[in-house]
TrEMBL record:
Modified residues (N6-(pyridoxal phosphate)lysine): 236
HAMAP family linked to this entry: Kynureninase
Record-given protein name: Kynureninase
GO biological process: anthranilate metabolic process; L-kynurenine catabolic process; L-tryptophan catabolic process to kynurenine; NAD+ biosynthetic process; quinolinate biosynthetic process
Similarity comment: family membership: Belongs to the kynureninase family.
Record: residues binding pyridoxal 5'-phosphate: 101-102, 129-132, 210, 213, 235, 264, 292
NCBIfam families, alphabetized: kynureninase (TIGR01814)
Subunit-level organization: Homodimer.
GO cellular component: cytoplasm
Catalytic activity: L-kynurenine + H2O = anthranilate + L-alanine + H(+); 3-hydroxy-L-kynurenine + H2O = 3-hydroxyanthranilate + L-alanine + H(+)
EC number: 3.7.1.3
Keyword Glycosyltransferase: no
Pathway field: Amino-acid degradation; L-kynurenine degradation; L-alanine and anthranilate from L-kynurenine: step 1/1; Cofactor biosynthesis; NAD(+) biosynthesis; quinolinate from L-kynurenine: step 2/3
């Protein structure tokens, strides 16, 4: 066995890892091998500290917490938006922390989907996250159109990945809007957002991306690529906690813009408390907020985003790629002939932060991993997703995971588990 496949290699990599000190800030990472950070990132001490600070501010200041204390709540969404700017490659006024992935997509569809004449269609893909499809269908029907006439879901050649050329070919002159994921949630394929954006614009089509599976794990250049809008969550690689507030980006050239769904937090902050019945929308992305920010669901994110302020996103991407490459190498060498197939693209530029393994016994293997305190998740069709999170996953975690898989297969341990799905996974 070559040195790179040995556990000593993993130990050496961990010793040389510039992000190693951050793992100590995530105590649960030492209690199990947590590889579900692409679903819900782990609790950190920093997140707890900022949550406690907000609770203390509420206790101490009451209603004055909106304007007093270490983190006044009134413009917290804007300030957190600015912390997010380096992660998505935008200008500060283009980003706001608000809503959730799905709610933000509703807001952006309400704002940017304007079917006119022949251009009535929304182009998306057959592998998109279901919530995005439900939101898109809602807006099509709200416009009095049928899904059959106005939705294009580009087919996948293999049920797991997309061919970007096929997506571009589907950008016909009846398409008004393209909505795509940056990284496919099952296979982990990363789409070429720059090329897709240029192709959409060449054809006079607006384009927006769901960044749920790429934010916090890789750099983006939304402004430079010319993306019209984007939306994402903060509870995966950004570790904001369950249900933490999401975020969105709207390109400068679309600002100022009246939001499709307005509320009093869409207001220009200088006049919001005039309580007038005519909305004066904020001139920046803050206009796409609706009601009172969910401060308790923003609070942990403040502490969590401090870590991202300290670390260049390129350093995170570098470790992420090294971890996933190492994982795939180990799977190829140690689990050959065990029925696994890596469905995530092997090229660095074409994959996101997780590795997806197809196996006929994926559910039972996932359960056997969990029983060994290794936390993956399962997604149809027969996919085990493994997401190393650079702030807290070690190379030794990766080596140990593959070793657990080897033992589970060697001793047929997975046969002890039922193939029934769990309700939430
Ligand atoms: C790609 C993608 N889009 C949308 C969602 C829905 O996010 P939310 O439930 O926060 O609206 C998720 C995750 O749940 C997701 O992974
Ligand atoms: N948002 C989630 C939830 O509320 C419960 C369980 C899982 C989730 C997820 O985020 C799953 C995730 N979007 C996925 O990639 O499958």
């Amino acid at each position: 066995m070559s040195f790179t496949l040995s556990r000593q290699f993993a130990e050496t990599e961990d010793r040389n890892d510039p992000l190693a000190p951050y793992r100590r800030l995530f105590p649960p990472a030492a209690e199990r091998i947590y590889l579900a950070g692409n679903s819900l990132g782990l609790w950190s001490e920093r997140a707890e500290q900022s949550l406690m600070a907000v609770l203390e501010s509420w206790r101490h200041h009451g209603v004055d917490g909106w304007s007093h204390g270490p983190y006044p709540w009134f413009d917290l969404s804007e300030r957190l938006g600015r912390l997010m700017v380096p992660l998505v490659g935008a200008n500060p006024h283009e980003v706001i922390v608000t809503g959730s992935t799905t709610v933000n997509l509703h807001q952006l569809l309400a704002t940017f989907y304007r079917p006119r004449g022949r251009r009535i269609k929304i182009l998306t893909d057959s592998l998109a996250f279901p919530s995005d499809i439900y939101a898109i269908k809602s807006h099509i029907t709200l416009h009095g159109l049928t899904v059959e006439e106005a939705l294009i879901e580009v087919a996948s050649p293999d049920g797991l990945t997309l061919d970007e050329n096929a997506v571009i070919q589907a950008m016909t002159d009846d398409v008004a809007l393209v909505i795509l994921p940056s990284v496919l949630f099952v296979s982990g394929q990363r789409l070429d957002m720059a090329t897709l954006t240029a192709a959409a614009h060449d054809r006079g089509i607006l384009i927006g991306f769901d960044l749920a599976h790429s934010v916090g794990i890789m750099p983006h250049q939304l402004s430079a690529w010319g993306v019209d809008f984007a939306f994402w969550c903060t509870y995966k690689y950004l570790n904001g906690g369950p249900g933490s507030v999401g975020a969105l980006y709207v390109a400068d050239r679309h600002l100022p813009k009246t939001p499709g769904l307005a509320g009093w937090f869409s207001s220009d902050k200088a006049v919001q408390f005039d309580m007038a019945h005519t909305l004066v929308p904020s001139s920046d992305a803050g206009a796409f907020q609706i009601g009172t920010p969910h401060i308790l669901s923003l609070a942990p994110l403040m502490g969590s985003l401090e870590m991202f302020r300290e670390i260049p996103i390129e350093t995170i991407r570098d470790k992420s790629l090294r971890l996933t490459r190492y994982l795939m190498d180990l799977v190829n060498h140690r689990l050959a002939d065990r029925g696994f197939r890596i469905v995530t693209p092997l090229q660095d530029a074409r994959r996101g932060g997780h590795v997806a393994l197809a196996h006929p016994d994926a559910i039972r293997i996932s359960k056997a991993l969990k029983a060994r305190q290794v936390i993956p998740d399962y997604r149809p069709p027969r996919i085990i997703r493994l997401a190393p999170s650079p702030l807290y996953t070690t190379y030794q975690d990766v080596w140990d995971t593959v070793n657990h898989l080897w033992e589970i297969m060697e001793y047929r341990e997975y046969e002890r588990y039922s193939p029934e799905r769990e309700v939430v996974s």
